Amino acid sequence: MIVSEAAISKPDAGEGGIPPASALVGAPGLWAAVLTVLLLVGQMLPTAKFFSNPANYLPLHIVLEFFAISITGMVAGLAWSLRERMPNSYRTLLGTGFFAVCWVDVAHTLSFAGMPDLVTPSGPEKAINFWLAARFIAAATFLAIAVSKPQDWSRRTCRGLFGLSAAVVLLVLWAGLFHAEWMPRTFIPGQGLTGFKIASEYLLAGAYCTAGVLIFFNACRTGNRDWLWFAVAAWVQGLAELFFTLYAD
Question: I need a surface site. Which of 84, 190, 210, 244 has the fewest CB within 10 A?
Fold first, then answer.
């Protein structure tokens, strides 16, 4: 996900008088349309098995996850470094949300089947629990930005929110590592994904897409084309969640 700094700092600034709805036909709309079609086509493709041994997928998974973790870490770092540029509420929400996503995704990566034990044995269900936690945090972050108004937050407020984000990470790690039995079953070997896991992915997809639509309306209201990219980022994450309702192995 790429979000320009202008999109989360100056929501009321127009850009050359370009109507956002017309601008969406350009690059942002092209990305959204192509990836939406890819999802629709993907669901019609026959089942395929790319790795004869699941362990062969582990290196690729680590690379992809660390790439995503790097992006979320940069978003959090940028938000922190620009926290004194007003209005800063959008940046702070995005930064604190993705700070938590970053570290929970690290736990997900280290808990994947085939990885060394992270306190408790690694496995599909342990990795899924951390995955869902990170995705719900990200979806909540998008929705919070979509429904809130820009504000000037003090240094104390910014620090407090980052502290709250760190507390959320510790809570998720504590629950995922030491109280996994509290979680509903998400994957059963030999059977595949559970109804709870699939329903969670649909719920996440709906949350992301709702946030995307609301952010798009903000773009139309403010005349800020950068918000369109932010809307597409939310929409595409919703599309991605739908793919996670499909896999069986």
Answer: 190
Beta carbons of 227 and 11 less than 8 angstroms apart: yes
Instruction: Assess whether the previous peptide bond of 46 is cis (omega < 30° from 0).
Output: no
CA atoms within a 13 Å half-sphere pointing along the CA-CB vector of 82: 22
- The 10s digit of each residue's pLDDT in 201-214 is 999 999 999 999 99
DSSP state, 120? B
Taking the C-alpha atoms of residue 15 and residue 219, their distance in angstroms, rounded to an integer, is: 11
Q: How many CB atoms lie within 10 A of CB 94?
A: 22
pLDDT tens, 119-167? 999 988 999 999 999 999 999 999 999 999 889 999 999 999 999 999 9
Cβ distance 222 to 215 under 8 Å?
A: no
Bridge partners of residue 187, in order along the sequence:
193
228 in Cβ contact with 23 (< 8 Å): yes
Q: How far apart are CA 21 and CA 10, in angstroms?
A: 19
Residue 190 neighbours by CB under 8 Å, 6+ apart: none
Rg (CA), the chain: 19
What's the full length of the chain, in residues?
Answer: 249
- Gap between the Cα atoms of 207 and 156, Å rounded: 30
